[in-house]
Write a structure and sequence with these properties.
The chain is mainly beta. The protein folds into three domains: 10-334, Glycosyl hydrolase domain, family 43 (Tachylectin-2, Chain A); 364-554, Jelly Rolls (Sandwich), CATH 2.60.120.200; 561-703, Trefoil (Acidic Fibroblast Growth Factor, subunit A) (Trefoil). Helices cover 2% and strands 42% of the residues. Strands 4, 25, 28, 29, 31, 32, 33, 34 and 39 form a nine-stranded mixed sheet that branches. Strands 26, 27, 30, 35, 36, 37, 38 and 40 form an eight-stranded antiparallel sheet that branches. The two termini are 49 Å apart.
Length: 705
Amino acid sequence: MSTERIFLGFATLVALASGCAAAESQTTLPPLARQHWTADNGNGTYSNPLFYGEFEDPDVIRVGADYYLAGTTMHMNPAVEILHSKDLVNWELAGYCANRLDLGPAYRLEGGNIYGQGIWAPCIRHHNGMFYILCNVNRAGLQVFRSKSINGPWERNQLPGRHDMSVLFDDDGKVYIISGNHSPYPIEELSPDLRSFVTNAPRHELVGQMGEGHHLYKINGKYVDISAIPGGPVDQMVAVADSIDGPWKVERMVQSESLGVTQATPDRAQPDDRGLWLHQGGMVSTPSGEWWSIIMSDHGSAGRMVNLVPITWTDGFPLIGLPGNLRKAPNTWLKPNTGFKQAPKPTYVWDDNFDDGKLNPHWQWNHVPDDSKWSLTEKSGMLRLHSLPAENFWNARNSICQRSPGPESIITVELDTTGMTPGDTAGLGLLSSPYAWIGVVKNKVGTALQMFESPRMGRGFGRPMDAASDVTNAPTISPVTPPAHLWLRVHCNFDSDQAVFSWSADGKSFTPLGKPFTMTFQLTTFQGVRPALFDFNTTGRPGGYADFDNYVCVEPRARGIEREIPLGKTITLTSGADGSCLVADAPSARLVNVVSNSIAAKGPSARFHVIDLGLGRVALKTSGGEYVSATPAGAVLKQLDGKAPGDAETFQWINLMRGDTMFMALTNHRYLATKPNVCGPVLADATGPMPARKGGACFKWQMVE
């Protein structure tokens, strides 16, 4: 089997770094990058996910030296989010295709809703100086947006709907569109201006067991289509042909790669958890000739997130992974060689004090808002929401939403209820099915502070929702009459899928209200939970208003222990599978694992000095002066006699969340691993982490004082 993509050895990479790699690994990150999830580690590497928050159905392109990423926005407005990057790791918001996706009353929450509908699986392309973004709107049709600038304005036309389609501008001027979720997949022709289908064109189709979420390309004269098998623990497929007419050869592009993401809530995951696998994403090349995929995986109630993973071309197929470990992906790896250096910065900073007269652009409205019923100027420095009639939070217009970043987030907002009138309910909610909120309810007698959790409202994807079902649940009512000015908070922990609502009269001391809310990912909204500010009136008439201020989202684990490398320190290593300890066994010259209460586990042979080799790579030096070295037979101890560590002694320090660490050998891009519940030699052939971290390749480190 030939491998067309060659990765440089460690010595070459160090030379390219011009002596600055060691300094990079100790770089102090900018303040925002320390406070909010940032994929860039600041040492020449990145760690997935790109954004620790929902970004669905990614499609990516390169135009010159610039990269653009588009994603699904469902029923949210503005619609079709577009990001821009120079290095594929650090991204910023470029804009949206449509400020208002208004295709009828249900899109405005008038007499119905489009939960789980709206914008799906965009395809972004650039051709002859024009950007195109196509996305299907279920029950409405295929939307075609075009603009000469990625920042807009965008013109829109509509075509008959096509499920999870992708478009290719071919060399001969023809424009192909592939769609569908079962074989044969139709490949139709569009007019050059993408305003109509060519009805008399020859019939083309892709015959083969693929999936949905197509990404169609022409690369070096070959036609390539990528699609994902529908589901959560599923793979991604790739088909290649010499002609648009086929025949198509199909390969598995990704196989059972979870990056350690569990199918169950992480706190409840069992050792046999299958995980949630990488699937559905596009691919792109860099000017240096590298190929990369930005690909999605489910993350429970936080929603679906995207990851950046390298591609290796093998026998004419683009496969996820590195030579020696294909169809798998590292969670931490070298940043792409794009020719551009970028300081680490977060894509999303959610905070908003509403002081500058415009909303943080990361806000999205739940359905199309009534712009006459919200304001940033009626009371300077505050967001004012005028209440509109609704039975409940689910149907409340002008609820303004963000995403709740993982793995943990604490969201706080100030609320002034002075303008509320009887029938009004205003507060902070988590939009999902079921949903929950904490807020102030005004009636003719006075005000009450309540926490409410609805039953699950959907009866399955695409089926009607019971808008009045929340009458079956009673709210939790605080015994304290709330002050007119108060603080509301929700603390979301996505390792446990638990959210705790609380409130404060002074912004310092918070009191929980109600029981913890269990967050879920479901197919009613088809999204993770969305924090929302809301105000509605249950009398059937418009009511008063509520003023919101100082929305703050704290990410306490944005740069936790899982992002640290104890460079220059001495550590011990224990297996996450069984708690056994790694020790250097001098008689056998092997790295082995022993039970944690053994004499060896408490002695100097269990101590390893972490030597910084730059680019997030380390050597492990024993107390006896040997180095851990990866060989086909396993991890051995090697004396270097003053020589620098080579590829065999160099390990990419791979961080997973929840404090787990893996060691990737540069010789085969596989990982050090113990055999769970068996003491003996450590191997160097694990292909990746088990989702529950019990496969023997995940370790916990502790610094030795």
